[in-house]
Amino acid sequence: MKIIVAGGGQAGCTAAKRLKQNLPDADVLLFDADTCGLYAKMRLPDYIAGKVAREKLILASPEAMRAQGIETHPGETLEKIDPAAKEIRTSAGRSFSWDKLVLAGGADAFVPPVKGIERVKTFTLRTLHDADRLIARSETAEDAVVIGGGLLGLEAAWALRERGLAVTVVEFMNRLLPRQLNEAESAVLLEKLSGAGLHFRLGVSAAELEPGSAPDRVKTTFSDGSVQEAGILLFSAGIRSRIHPAADCGIQVNKAIVADHRFQTSLPDIHAIGDCAEIDGRTWGLWVAAKDQGEALGDILAGKRDSFVSPVYAPSLKISGIQLKDIRQDASAKPQ
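The structure assignment produced for this chain is given below.
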């Protein structure tokens, strides 16, 4: 059996390793846009803050994967799927046949179509390359604006603050972490983070961008008419699943690639896992969820598991000294 895994993030790498363990006689091929192998995306803020060395982020290099019997193709991505011929075409112009195809292409950072965005330099934090760009820019920048007050936005903002920048977080909702905390809990978190040196603009969004008063600076006009200029403008406004080339070959997609509880897509022998997959209308966007799905698929295709039922995940805020459970306790202890 030949199994192609398209995507070398947590979901894809975990699936490839589990498949090779369960099916040692199968040919498992792993294609990935990155050349360095699997790295710890959840630690990118620590890397930006200077708390972890770049090489320590690497969890499984292409060489380490090959040592486990997996045929790796770093820097080569899936460009076209031919379901009838059971072939793929890659970015290197090569064709490969498969018996099972696993789509694990992940997701990209979502950047909203703000007026004037094409005129300025903006940043996201989704990949190691993104982190490298932010570190390089922070060497000369003095301040930053982070668009997005969710978990990743706050962690990125904290990392930039630890690099010595003055950081303002902008959240279009009127409170932080609206998915995780109620109003009282968000107020406690806001108080703690404000006291630690972060600044906040709540209930507004970026309306227009234009070049600032010096090269590489960006002036942002907000929805309330206020204006702020910064050396770094970082968007942390969620993710968008990579649905191509799956959508191009007729696989059913919604916001992500639609899959069932066996990770089966609408076409036979093609599966989807991780941030590019949607199960019961939901994409988790979590490192631990991608790992769980990769392991489950490796077991399902080997006949060791019938289906996957996702556990309930409790995302955490990775900022030193701040635990969401403590925030909730502090909020409940305050007089109403």
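Interim note for the steering committee: Residues 117-237+315-333 form a domain with the FAD/NAD(P)-binding domain fold (CATH 3.50.50.60). The chain has a mean pLDDT of 96.
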